[in-house]
């Protein structure tokens, strides 16, 4: 669904530019994954899918489950042990079958792939052209709202968001920098860019679990090598602090994976001119709760308001 585009007075004043928030947190499932997964599910139904199989640590699985219920198609989601109970509960609420397998997404994904057949179609959480096609509509909506951004800031996990945003920018003839944000413990794109190779991290760590892909999709890496992509990393504490500030400023709860992007603006890590329009993808996060965010805040000795 079309999401609001909001000018943030707080972040605009803080960064001396015009900061525009694309509120993907307002999607029915709480994250931009509804846009990408939703498009993929619809396309595969057109091709005859009778069941959806997916692997996910959270947002993607929730969106597959949502689409399955909406389309009256059974869904099985394989999740790693790191998946929050909140995320699992949200999948179960949509009548999906949820199987917990392995310590990481890689292990969960192996089981998911083994369940695929001619009618049970695999929905990848981040590496599929249909996903990117869905995400690209974000830029179409921004342009339709009359904003032609001078830069885009977004978080990177597996790479579907940056892949789709890049596609949307290209078809709208926008050649602007993309600031790709990761946490220190999930910096698969940042590390690959530094090495100039499509590498896989030995491990991913930290609380931004929805960014925890050991390797970004090849398309995201290729974009980073050919386009104006500026990779940055932030600490888990920076991400949580930004989540708390954003909750106060915009009355919206987002997960640390989204807070990572917001933190570079709250901490003024990028310089913009007063006339520039900066687009921020508020990717959301369905499985975060205020209780969990408060626990993270306590972990980092941050203040919260009950």
UniProtKB/TrEMBL annotation:
It comes from the Bacteria. InterPro entries: Ser/Thr_Dehydratase, TrpB-like_PALP, TrpB-like_PALP_sf. Pfam families: PALP. Residues 2-284 form the Tryptophan synthase beta chain-like PALP domain. This is L-serine ammonia-lyase. Keywords: Lyase, Pyridoxal phosphate. Belongs to the serine/threonine dehydratase family. Its EC number is 4.3.1.17. PANTHER family: CATABOLIC L-SERINE_THREONINE DEHYDRATASE, THREONINE DEHYDRATASE, MITOCHONDRIAL-RELATED. One of its GO terms (molecular function) is threonine deaminase activity. GO terms for biological process: isoleucine biosynthetic process; L-serine catabolic process; L-threonine catabolic process. Its cofactor is pyridoxal 5'-phosphate. SUPFAM superfamilies: Tryptophan synthase beta subunit-like PLP-dependent enzymes. It catalyses: L-serine = pyruvate + NH4(+).
